[in-house]
Structure to design on (714 residues):
DNA sequence: GAAAGAAATTAACGCGCGTAAAGAAAATTG
DNA sequence: CAATTTTCTTTACGCGCGTTAATTTCTTTC
């Protein structure tokens, strides 16, 4: 496991040579037998250094890669790793997937990225296709509420799976994600410490379970602080969160029902929409003089640094989540794909103060 | 080609049955011979309707999928399609990749998404790995300037490739992308028609060739209009365009060298950074009264609708690009992977007027 | 219902590689 | 140097499926 297998990087080749068809031929050109070369590709350290040198010299000259389909045919497990996210065009998922993917590559695996594009039908097809690839493991951020539980359960029985981002009870061998309570606690604490307690701005029917956890956290924290909670649930379907936030904010401001000058958004994408609405209405957002509203949020979306004003938010520890994901997968693979008990790792948030609150 | 192969969607299975090991076993359970079943999987229409029904009934019951590695081992071509982009965490690429991927799925292919993460080393590894997958075709948006030309050229010799987004001369069988000249023409025309001629705001050493084409287009258009061009090139490396734009804008404003009230950004991500800088400096952007600056840009980045103010931009026709990509790949596959002559399709921009200019 | 045509079956080979067993060759040890 | 251990070679089988050729069985047609 985790051995450094050569990956056929571009090198100066001898072009006059015809293309190598198979390992037999390559072995002959290396002056070795096929089983030895096969051993090398399974673990370069398993052959004598001198033999290894000969193979690697031949590799320089002839640009040969074992046929990936033939290699995997008899294997019960491959070096494939699947990374499945609900919607890759959401920069948050693009970013977390990016970090995990890079970690996988570093560890010598072949990660493949999949997006369910917000549809449970596609999520199912991805999982069923992934099963056929016999991956060593899969990182799955499920769609959430609209996921096909039965399909995911079936998948997790066949493939060692680490859930991330969105937890689904008892699904997969482990869960790695952010601690939603910590997110909300930090933002609410900060906002209360520096001004009025926040109202909570969210989508009414979020597909993602984290949204519900954040609402519950908000309610609990406000209650514990003896403060009256104020939840604003806006309507909207699909993955256009910014537009939903923008529309919802316009409706909110028009209704005149907002009783505070501090809004905590469930996530940054809603906040981005809300800030756009504020700008459109000439509402100045920030903590300074002449500001009508403070806005904070959660996720540290890649774009939250560049909103106007820049968004105060509770950040995911992207690197830490990715590291923990990898670590979990490694021990999962070492345990033969199953854990005795399902572990859940919740990584706390890091508060990032910017100009919006 | 393009046949509707069943994809093993979740169905009610008879759980008591043991798992099918191979096609032989599945054929027996269907009451048919393996070659017939094999024929079916290659083309469901190639067997008698009655036979087809029997297989599909068995498929309902037993949840069998041909071993993907064994299937592809002897094939010189698979139904795999690769989609390679330079940086998937850039929402522009995430969006165009999303649309192309969905089109591929609709067409019955198995698309796989790859991101070079901004590194030519990874781009090379993706291509060399992709070659091994014997894909029917590949959509490649190369890194651009830092791409390893020789590696890409070698890849294109082995695999039918359609370049998109970034053109590299004579590389691949075809290119599909947006018409940078049209982008700049529309924005410059609009800006000149409604106010002062724009200065052009760009990165000094853009990796992406489109940036150079846009600068040239700007210079040409200004020249033809008898106007003096003014190019502002800001420093910066990597993929953090927003931050580069923000820093560059601050430097620009601090220097006092800006001689116009109209800025045309090379792309939306730079513009997002520039708008953030404007906000931070209290510069009001827009075309209305009391605005210090007009800002327009190119790409119709998914967030350009939500900047403050919303960004006037020349939009890619995402759908049209994706459609043309698919169309090109289809005819490429039908032509056996090679075109007589390399075609270049440039799709004009669509101007989107918003509040920023 | 017989002849012609279509579709399925049987049998067999090949793809490229993993892997195991047995023996030969090389490296290591005392 | 001989004895031992390690590594490599030879030989051979198996994986699951594509594919072909020769037959057999089923459909269609008149």
């Amino acid at each position: 496991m985790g051995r450094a297998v050569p990956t056929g990087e571009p090198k100066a080749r001898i072009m006059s040579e015809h293309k190598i068809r198979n390992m037999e031929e390559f072995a002959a050109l290396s002056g070795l037998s096929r089983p030895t070369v096969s051993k090398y590709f399974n673990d370069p350290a398993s052959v004598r250094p001198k033999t290894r040198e000969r193979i690697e010299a031949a590799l320089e000259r002839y640009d040969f890669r074992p046929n990936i389909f033939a290699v995997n045919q008899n294997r019960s497990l491959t070096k494939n790793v699947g990374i499945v996210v609900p919607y890759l065009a959401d920069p948050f998922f693009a970013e977390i997937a990016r970090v995990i993917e890079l970690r996988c590559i570093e560890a010598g695996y072949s990660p493949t990225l999949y997006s369910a594009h917000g549809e449970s039908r596609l999520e199912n097809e991805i999982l069923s296709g992934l099963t056929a690839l016999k991956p060593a493991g899969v990182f799955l951020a499920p769609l959430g509420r609209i996921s096909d539980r039965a399909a995911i359960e079936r998948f997790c029985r066949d493939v060692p799976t680490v859930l991330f981002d969105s937890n689904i009870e008892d699904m997969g061998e482990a869960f790695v994600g952010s601690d939603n309570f910590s997110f909300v606690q930090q933002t609410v604490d900060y906002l209360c410490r520096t001004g009025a307690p926040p109202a909570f701005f969210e989508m009414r029917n979020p597909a993602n379970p984290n949204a519900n956890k954040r609402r519950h956290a908000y309610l609990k924290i406000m209650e514990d602080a003896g403060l009256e909670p104020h939840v604003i649930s806006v309507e909207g379907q699909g993955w256009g969160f910014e537009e939903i936030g923008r529309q919802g904010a316009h409706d909110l401001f028009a209704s005149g029902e907002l009783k505070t000058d501090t809004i905590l958004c469930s996530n940054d994408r809603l906040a981005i929409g809300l800030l756009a609405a504020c700008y459109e209405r000439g509402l100045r957002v920030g903590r300074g003089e002449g500001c009508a509203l403070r806005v904070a949020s959660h996720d540290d979306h890649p774009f939250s640094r560049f909103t106007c004003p820049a968004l105060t938010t509770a950040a995911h520890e992207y690197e830490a989540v990715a590291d923990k994901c990898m670590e979990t997968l490694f021990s999962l693979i070492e345990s033969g794909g199953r854990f005795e008990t399902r572990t859940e790792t919740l990584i706390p948030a890091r508060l990032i103060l910017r100009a919006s609150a």
The longest strand of chain B covers residues 80-85. Chain B touches chain A through 58 residues (CB under 8 Å). Chain B has twelve helices and twelve strands. Residues 1-16 of chain B have pLDDT under 50 and may be disordered.
